[in-house]
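Researcher: Re-running this chain for the archive, since the previous output was lost when a drive failed. Same request as before.
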Amino acid sequence: MMNYRMIENQDIDGVFNVDQACFKHNWTRDSYLAETKNILSNYIVAEDKDQIIGFGGFWQIIDEAHITNIAVLASYRQKGVGQGVMAAMISRALEKGCVRMTLEVREDNQPAISFYLKNGFTREGRRKNYYGNGIDAIIMWRYELG
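Model: Regenerated structure tokens:
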């Protein structure tokens, strides 16, 4: 059964394994451990049969939720897991008093851009060479969470 909940220290290895499976040159295990101690940080994990299969996080900056990352293992994609993580993140953001949400996404990550558009985000800008090697970030916002 799928379960969505706030991250706990014992989840770090599972979250890091998902990160390594989904991203190149992304965060370290210690960076995820640090997120559990960061007062701005809010991370949701997706579990299936006690295995971490996805996660998503945001930093609360005053009344804005700044998404840091969302990842789902390839074998669980297109099954609603990412949508469940997003719904749990929005719910958490609303609980914390956030009124809007933002993120940067690689300009060449069309599946992610489509996912965010489907979730009410709009393209609002570009950060040149944000990811290095000439790869820009698309800045996206969702102005209403409720």
